[in-house]
Amino acid sequence: MYDWAQFCRTKGAVKLHLVLDHDGYLPKFAVITDGKVSDFEIARELSFAPGTIVVEDRGYTDYEVYARWTEAGVFFVSRLRDNALFEVLREREVTPHGNILEDQIIRLTGAPDKCPHPLRRVVAVREDTGEILVFVTNHHRLAASTIAAIYKDRWQIELFFKALKQNLKIKTFIGTSPNAVKSQIWTALISMLLVRYLQLCSRFGWSLANLVALLRMNLFTHRDLMAWLDQPYAVPPDPHDDPQASLAFS
User: Is pTM, for the whole model, over 0.90?
Assistant: First the structure.
């Protein structure tokens, strides 16, 4: 049905590569590709302002990109691949009885020409599961525990996709052509952007799910949207008292 969405012999797939801005958790960059496009191919297209901290999973590992970001003053925090080759240049002091096991300055030896800059390797243990996590970053000033906490906050992008699928019903596609599928995904992202904006504008303590649900219920109710956001349970005004609205009821 989706023969244009190349993935494997029996399945088609599309992949949404997304950059989520931590400030407001709003999408900053998105591109839709077929399922065979590697994550690191998209990483090469990304550009960020100096001082930005990019948090990414191992799928976006690209040593040339790491070097380019370092030279541009852009920081990154990622998981270090299990097969990565490196040499330890210096051991940094680790606070005892914490969740940080190792904090090292390293140089990648598997591809020294691609990323000659010294990087930082942080080994931490998850306090809830005991899992050992190994991070790599080019940020040398933050505490090792902060590096681990920054990567932990990457889970917000998973929550974003969960909210997208649950609240905007992007579970099935209404068409099978590339334009139909991509239009539906872009529409969902635009809708999420608008709903997030309304949530940030409101003085009422909305959860995203409640806001989406009540917006659906009030689609055909004539009332001021911004006033309703702050007082959603107030009695709707009588539309006949609005001279402009009376045109719609004549």
Answer: no
CA-based R_g, the chain, Å? 24
CB 156 within 8 A of CB 145: no
Q: For residues 63 and 135, is the Cβ–Cβ distance under 8 A?
A: no
- 46-87 residue pLDDT tens: 889 999 999 998 888 889 999 999 999 999 999 999 888 999
Q: How far is CA 38 from CA 59, 196, 204, in A?
A: 8, 29, 42
Distance CA 168, CA 211 (A): 12
pLDDT of res. 125: 92
**Cα 151 to Cα 77: distance, rounded to the nearest angstrom:** 7
Residues contacting 101, CB < 8 A, separation 6+: 94, 123, 124, 125, 132
Dist. CA 172–CA 189, nearest whole Å: 15
Per-residue model confidence as pLDDT tens digits over 195-238: 888 888 888 988 888 898 888 888 887 888 888 898 888 776 66
- The kind and range of the H/E element at 30 are strand 26-34
Report pLDDT for 70.
95
